[in-house]
């Protein structure tokens, strides 16, 4: 399953890399694309292994805000 999250606070390539690497460590996440220019993080994941809430929590733990 693929889901796109609007994320605010990413201001550089380092920010997007931080989010990408943190999400890639989550069990069930298979692919992550992050763009600080667009303010978007796209996550491909197995919904039986990881929830949307867990993905949002990891993004926010890195210091960014997920828009609803």
Helical run tally:
2
- Average pLDDT score: 97
Distance between the termini: 19 Å
Strand coverage percent: 25-35%
Taken in chain order, the helices and strands follow as EHEEHE
From the helix content, strand content and strand pairing, which structural class follows? alpha+beta
Number of strands: 4
Look up the CATH topology.
Alpha-Beta Plaits
- Rounded to an integer in angstroms, the radius of gyration calculated over CA atoms is 11 Å
Percent range of helical residues = 25-40%
Corresponding CATH architecture: 2-Layer Sandwich
Strand arrangement within the widest β-sheet reads: 2-3-1-4
For the largest beta-sheet, the strand count, sense and barrel status come to:
4 strands, antiparallel
Instruction: Give the oligomer, counting copies of the same chain as homo and different chains as hetero.
Output: single chain
Query: How many independent structural domains?
Result: 1
Envelope shape: globular
CATH class: Alpha Beta
Please mark out the parts with pLDDT under 50 across 5 or more consecutive residues, or reply none.
none
Explain the layout of strands and helices:
Elements: E1 2-8, H1 13-24, E2 29-35, E3 40-45, H2 52-61, E4 65-66
Antiparallel strand pairs: 1-3, 1-4, 2-3
Structure summary:
The chain is an alpha+beta fold.
Tell me what you see in this structure.
- This protein has 68 residues and is an alpha+beta fold.
- The protein has a single domain (2-66), classed as Alpha-Beta Plaits (2-Layer Sandwich).
- Helix content is 32%, strand content 32%.
- The chain is built from 2 helices and 4 strands, in the order βαββαβ.
- A 4-stranded antiparallel β-sheet has the order 2-3-1-4.
- Strand 2 (29-35) and strand 3 (40-45) form a beta hairpin.
- The longest helix has 12 residues, at 13-24.
- The two termini are 19 Å apart.
- The mean pLDDT is 97.
